[in-house]
Design brief:
Blueprint lengths: L16 H27 L7 H22 L7 H23 L2
Helix pairs in contact: 1-2, 2-3
């Protein structure tokens, strides 16, 4: 593996470990960017990113990026389902990675 283990503590030690690492990094970057783009679009009263897409990104591994984007851009912070849902997605992401590492 070319990725240091301290960068991804839940990394599996099989050939799919690096793929999972890059997936998680990519989804978190995407989630962060989606929150920023949606904030810009909201200010301009333009077409918006559907909320379901933001949650799908969070569930698919980008919950940390979505949560950071939510607070950095001060976007969707008044909606209880984002304030509670994104942190729950973080727990779901961590649990999923743990179970993947254990092989369950």
């Amino acid at each position: 593996s070319i990725v240091p283990s301290f960068l991804f503590p839940f990394k599996s030690y099989n050939r799919y470990g690096d793929v999972m690492l890059y997936w998680i990094i990519g989804m978190n970057i995407l989630g962060f960017l989606l929150m920023g783009i949606d904030k810009i679009k909201a200010r301009r009263h333009a077409w918006r990113i559907p909320e379901i897409n933001l949650f799908l990104c969070a569930v698919a591994g980008g919950a940390v990026g979505c949560t950071l984007g939510m607070f950095m851009f001060r976007h969707k912070t008044k909606h209880w389902y984002f304030r509670i849902g994104f942190p729950l997605c973080i727990l779901l992401n961590v649990l999923s990675l743990y179970l993947l590492k254990k092989g369950l």
